[in-house]
Write a structure and sequence with these properties.
The chain is mainly alpha-helical. It is built from 12 helices and no strands.
Length: 262
């Protein structure tokens, strides 16, 4: 049983020393991943530890560390909406739970993972008090320098290479526009000050490129393009935090509403 008053640094050390996370390396190295590889949680780990070092309050360091390590543990870009997040939190409950027992930290980590379905805070803040910071760190790539953001953008396209080009451009642009309409992208002052302005600039530039006329025969040559477009209309499948490609059917994955593919 882990104490719930661990720092994030102590949380990572406890999890790594226990070996509870040993299955994650192979999961994050699955061949269909381009952005959601092991590098993603490791970058988030560095940001979380930086936030802690700079005095950002973290209520439950063990839960925060578990979120970082397990939040994209299951990633199938073709999964039904919300399914990856639900399976990731189930795996976190199983594997992190083996270390933490019935600790509140397990509930807090799992609630934060489910919050990535729509990248919105849980209605009950007490169930995941660090969710705002964790969601900010997950979306920090949106505010990255231009070259890094473009690399991320290309990696997401690679993960959705099964989607026809014209369909992808239309749906991704719509999702990015939905994020850009938000009052604020980053929920903590720490995240807002670092990433809000550059993220909005990156999103605006990406949308402009996606909305440019694009000549391609790919859509016409793809017999099922229309059905793909229909199936993508309500899917959270073309953004950073949305999860291997199978957005063409299946259950809704739960009652939480996604805002779009990030």
């Amino acid at each position: 049983m882990l104490p719930i008053n661990l720092t994030a640094a102590e949380g990572f050390k406890s999890i790594e020393a226990s070996g509870a996370h040993t299955s994650l390396g192979s999961r994050y190295n699955e061949p269909w991943r381009s952005y959601h590889t092991w590098r993603h949680p490791m970058k988030m780990k560095a940001l979380l530890l930086q936030a802690e070092a700079e005095g950002v309050p973290i209520v439950d360091g063990a839960a925060a560390a578990a979120f970082v390590l397990w939040h994209d543990a299951v990633y199938d870009p073709q999964a039904a909406h919300g399914r990856n997040e639900e399976l990731s939190q189930q795996l976190c409950q199983l594997e992190f739970g083996a270390l933490a027992g019935k600790s509140l930290s397990v509930t807090r980590a799992c609630e934060a993972i489910l919050a990535t379905i729509g990248h919105e805070l849980p209605s009950d803040h007490s169930r995941s008090p660090d969710a705002a910071l964790l969601l900010d760190i997950d979306l920090s790539i949106l505010g990255a320098p231009d070259a890094e953001f473009k690399g991320y953008d290309q990696a997401i396209r690679q993960e959705y290479r099964h989607v026809p080009e014209e369909v992808y451009r239309e749906k991704r642009a719509a999702v990015l526009e939905a994020f850009l309409r938000r009052h604020r992208l980053f929920l903590t002052e720490w995240g807002y000050g670092r990433w809000e302005a550059p993220a909005r600039a990156n999103l605006a530039h990406a949308i402009a490129e996606l909305r440019q006329p694009h000549s391609t025969n790919e859509l016409a040559e793809t017999d099922d393009a229309a059905s793909v477009l229909t199936s993508l209309e309500d899917r959270d499948c073309l953004l950073p935090g949305s999860r291997r490609p199978r957005c063409n059917g299946g259950e809704s994955g739960g009652a939480r509403q996604a805002t779009g593919p990030l």
